[in-house]
Amino acid sequence: MTALSPGATLGIVGGGQLGRMIALAAANYGLKVHVFAPDADSPAFDVAAESTLAAYDDADALARFARSVDVVTYEFENIPAETADLLSAIAPLHPNAAALATTQDRLSEKAFINGLGIPTAPFRSVGTAGDLAQAIVEIGLPAVLKTRRFGYDGKGQRMLRPGEAIDPAAILAEFGGVPCILEGFVAFEREVSVVAARGADGTFAAFDPCANTHRDHILALTQVPAPGIASSTADSAMEIAQRIADAFDYVGVLAVEMFLVAEADGSERVVVNEIAPRVHNSGHWTIEGALTSQFAQHVRAVCGWPLGDPRRPGGVAVEMRNLIGDDVDEWAALLAEPGAHLHLYGKGEARPGRKMGHVTRLLLPP
Ligand code: AMP
Questions:
Q1: Spans of the chain, pLDDT less than 70
Q2: Cβ atoms of residues 255 and 278 within 8 Å
């Protein structure tokens, strides 16, 4: 891969806050950005030199977009595989289409992870009511039924509890009859993620694993270092992310979401939940909390540039809190708080559950 020069144009597919923050990081390196997104009120459009407002299956618009840029990346992993193929036939696409296709489907994603010898929850593919009944027998309850595709923030999933009256046909009908996966419930102690980058030359740089707390299935709080995590567990979490990135011949930032499970002997075990082939909400703390932000790191990787240093200066502890729905009304108080780093995404309406911004605090010693 030839390295791009400042002044080149980075194409970003997807126009949400992740695309917006990639675009801001790209601007810092003298790059131009062209955002392709289907929603007129996409937050990334506000900060891009060029925008294309078109559907992800608009082949003509995609081709024009790809011809206008030097490299294409994405901030949204549910773009159709055909879209990725069309783009990558015209311009370099990073991360590659295979990483996208594998991680779009929870079944192929888990099979891929297990194929690397990395543990996940036990799982079964569920296409029919008979499959679901059989999967419940094999996996046991509690278990989590998820759609194979298009799930996010807890959407497209449902817990199945022991003692619950379960009608497999009715449950699958609730899911709209789409292909599903049944996962064994993991009694985890903590949820952590590793946000990491792999450069075009195969170099790898992970940010420290962070602990993630969800509210109503949406990330509420990220803390780094993850409170109480053993350094051997942190090392194995980062090593897992590296094996995944290497196996995909990945270029860019990825996030690996994991469960930490406490063993009877006091040790901790890492179980991978899912891979996001993109920058990730649990990496927002890196903007102020690391020597290189996840967004700058992603831009460096997809441009074929050397990766930056992912360490926390002085090992500082960092907290990032999402501003969800009307949390954003706190903006004035947060601006007045010394040391609170406020980020607003420029979204119009603060609907419940909508990520409107985030605030990062470095927990400096007194
Ligand atoms: P996901 O969409 O797979 O990230 O799941 C959303 C959230 O549901 C996770 O962050 C966990 O809190 C919970 N969850 C998902 N799968 C499992 C599982 N197999 N066992 C326990 N909790 C789960």
A1: 152-154
A2: yes
> Cβ distance 6 to 29 under 8 Å?
yes
3-state secondary structure of 128: coil
Which residue has the least CA distance to atom 19 on ligand 1?
A: 185
Pick the CATH number of 190-363 from 3.20.20.370, 3.40.1400.10, 3.30.420.40, 3.30.470.20: 3.30.470.20
100-106 own/partner pairs: CB under 8 Å, 24+ apart? 100/74, 100/277, 102/248, 103/77, 103/274, 103/275, 103/276, 103/277, 104/77, 104/78, 104/149, 105/148, 105/149, 106/146, 106/147, 106/148, 106/149, 106/151, 106/181, 106/274
- Give 167's DSSP letter: -
CATH of domain 9-93: 3.40.50.20
Tokens at 285, concatenated:
């703390």
**φ, ψ for residue 101 (rounded to 5)?**
-65, -40
pLDDT at 119: 98
Domain ranges of the chain: 9-93, 122-184, 190-363
Closest C-alpha among 336, 330, 333, 339 to residue 357: 330
Strand partners, 123: 183
Question: What number does the ligand 1 atom closest to the CA of 156 have?
Answer: 2
Same fold yes or no, 9-93 and 190-363:
no
Whether this prediction's pTM lies above 0.85 is answered by yes
* Region 122-184: CATH code: 3.30.1490.20
Ligand 1 pocket mutation, candidates 146, 273, 282, criterion most atoms within 8 A of CB: 273
